[in-house]
Structures are given as C-alpha cells and as structure tokens.
C-alpha cells in the first residue's frame, strides 16, 4: 500500500489558485472560445468529447461556494498509475462528487496532476440527447462494466489506461435512503464489484469520504407503510427494485420548506491509495477480494476517525458500514 508520511490534508484554494495544507489545529475553510465543444452539442454521441473549457467555467466555483465544498487529498497519486475513486456517501444528489470530480472548481488537476478522471453515472443518462453531450463534455461516463474497463485499459500515454481514473459513487440509490443529516451510514459491506474491477484492470483503489454530503437535505424516515407516502415507496421498490427517499430542504425567501439544498459545508477527503494485484479472473481469488475489501474499509475508517472531530462536530453517532 502506498502511503505518504505526512500529517494533515492538502487542499486547493480557488481564490489563490494554489495548494495549501490543512492541519487538525488549522481553522476550517470558509466559504477562449471552445468551438469544438459547441459543435459537440449538435453531433452524435461518438463525436462529443471532454471539454476542459466547460469543466473550468467560473460557474462551477460559484456552485461549490454556495455550499462551501472543499476537496482534500491525504497523499499524492503518481501519474503512472490508474485509479478507482470510491465516493461515499451517495447523499441525495452527490453534490460533492460532482463539484470535486466533474469540474475543476475544487482544483482536482492541481491536487492530482496528469490524472484524467471521469465521474460515472447511470447509463440511462446517456440516452437523452443534448444532456448526454453535456455529461460527456464534462468528462463523465457510464458506470457500466464495459465503460469502466474501457477507460481503465485504453488511452493515456501508453494506450493502456495509464494516468486515467474513474469515480464511482459506491452506495448507489440504496444509500440515498440512509442520507440522514449528521449521520454516516454507508452501503458497502456487500459492494465488491468495484474491488473486482480494480483487480481485473490492475487499478489502485482510492477511498473518498465526503463529510456533510448527507446534511444538504432533510430526509423523511420511518414512513408508515399504510400511509400514502409509505405506499408510494413500497410501489417504487416493487416495480423498480429500489425506492426513493422523501425529502425537503430550504425554500425561497428564507422559507423552511422547499427543494433548494441547504447551504452547509461539504468536505471531500481523498484517502490513501490501496494497490491491487492484477488478475484476469478475481472470481477464482475470493480470499484476495475480501482482503482488498477489508483494507478499503479500514482506510475509510481511518479517514473518519482522524477527521470526524474537525468536519463532523454535530454527528449523532459513528460511521456505520451496512
């Protein structure tokens, strides 16, 4: 396992456009024309391409500053590797994942130079014209197995995926039901597909923990199954295989009810990398898959234990792995 013998986290300041180190004792953070991009909006999916112009728009810095989203790294990542960032928790809309890994608002390319990252989302999002091209221009891709393997095994300086990375929100829609403010409940115990992906491609796993992601909306929990809301949730689960959370947040003009996310800080901490041994078929090595999965959870626990008193002062309990 690669480790960096330093204390504190490295962050990026959009104001100074430089890196800085956050120690435990430090104060918490406060709040060219691109014709090919425009052309890609009118062309088929295969012609749309990643646009650094779109990823670097000042709009995304305003977006991040609304919440005060910050990105920190625990250790630098060598540019000669390939990486799978595992983002936790899902929250409701994964605002922290979008700001940190789909834009340059938080300085991803400064913190992890020479690494080209793609935030992954549902394949169904890429069946919608225009919206599909917008996502592709942000460097986003489908979370399907074929898409993941293509990114990690092609492109880069050597044509084999070196210097490329993907970000997967591991808990998925199921974890959104656990997005209760001031809590950290992760759906991870049985999620091992990304571990096997890392082993098949020889990619390094990088755990990411977003403190505050669950605080942006208020989720209605313990719905009565006999109520209309409870019946709708059960219907979603029966038809689609998953259900959706009932939630509310702030409204306009300081109203207490609406759908605008709460203006609360989100601190995204990228953990230390976990190397894997490349195998063609990890299904034959379940013991090794379990070992890597345990190391991954151990690193997430380290992040939580080390930074919970800084970024989760209002927590109502410790992190729980479901």
UniProtKB/TrEMBL annotation:
Family: Belongs to the diacylglycerol acyltransferase family.
Catalyzed chemical reaction(s): an acyl-CoA + a 1,2-diacyl-sn-glycerol = a triacyl-sn-glycerol + CoA
Its job: Catalyzes the terminal and only committed step in triacylglycerol synthesis by using diacylglycerol and fatty acyl CoA as substrates.
Record-linked Pfam families: DAGAT
EC number: 2.3.1.20
InterPro entries named among the record's database cross-references: DAGAT (IPR007130)
Record's keyword annotation contains NADP: no
Pathway membership: Glycerolipid metabolism; triacylglycerol biosynthesis
Subcellular localization, as worded in the UniProt entry: Endoplasmic reticulum membrane
GO molecular function, one term: acyltransferase activity
Species of the source: Aspergillus cavernicola
Xref: PANTHER family: DIACYLGLYCEROL O-ACYLTRANSFERASE
Highest taxon in the source lineage: Eukaryota
Keywords assigned by UniProt, alphabetized: Acyltransferase, Endoplasmic reticulum, Lipid biosynthesis, Lipid metabolism, Membrane, Transferase, Transmembrane, Transmembrane helix
Protein's recorded name: Diacylglycerol O-acyltransferase
Lipid bilayer topology: Multi-pass membrane protein
Leader peptide range in chain numbering: none
């Amino acid at each position: 396992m690669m480790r960096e013998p330093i204390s504190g986290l490295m962050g990026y300041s959009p104001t100074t456009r430089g890196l800085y180190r956050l120690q435990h004792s430090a104060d918490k953070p406060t709040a060219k024309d691109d014709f090919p991009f425009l052309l890609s909006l009118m062309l088929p999916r295969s012609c749309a391409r990643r646009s650094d112009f779109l990823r670097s728009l000042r709009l995304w810095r305003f977006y991040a500053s609304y919440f005060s989203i910050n990105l920190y790294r625990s250790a630098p990542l060598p540019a000669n590797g390939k990486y799978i960032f595992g983002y936790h928790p899902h929250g409701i809309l994964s605002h922290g994942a979008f700001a940190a890994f789909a834009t340059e608002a938080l300085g991803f390319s400064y913190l992890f130079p020479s690494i080209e990252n793609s935030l992954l989302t549902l394949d169904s999002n890429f069946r919608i014209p225009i919206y599909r091209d917008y996502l592709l221009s942000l460097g986003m891709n489908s979370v399907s197995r074929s898409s993941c393997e293509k990114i990690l095994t092609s492109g880069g300086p050597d044509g084999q995926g070196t210097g490329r990375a993907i970000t997967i929100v591991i808990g998925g829609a199921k974890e959104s039901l656990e997005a209760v403010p001031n809590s950290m409940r992760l759906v991870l115990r049985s999620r091992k597909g990304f571990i096997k992906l890392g082993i098949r491609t020889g990619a390094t796993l990088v755990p990411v923990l977003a403190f505050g992601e669950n605080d942006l909306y208020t989720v209605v929990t313990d719905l009565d199954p006999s109520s209309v809301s409870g019946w709708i949730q059960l219907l979603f689960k029966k038809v689609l295989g998953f259900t959706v959370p009932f939630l509310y947040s702030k409204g306009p003009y300081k109203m207490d009810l609406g759908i605008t996310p709460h203006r609360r800080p989100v601190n995204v901490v990228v953990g230390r990398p976990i190397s894997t041994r490349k195998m063609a078929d990890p299904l034959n090595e379940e013991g090794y898959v379990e070992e890597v999965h345990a190391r991954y959870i151990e690193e997430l626990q380290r992040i939580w234990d080390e930074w919970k008193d800084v970024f989760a002062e209002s927590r109502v309990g410790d992190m729980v792995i479901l």
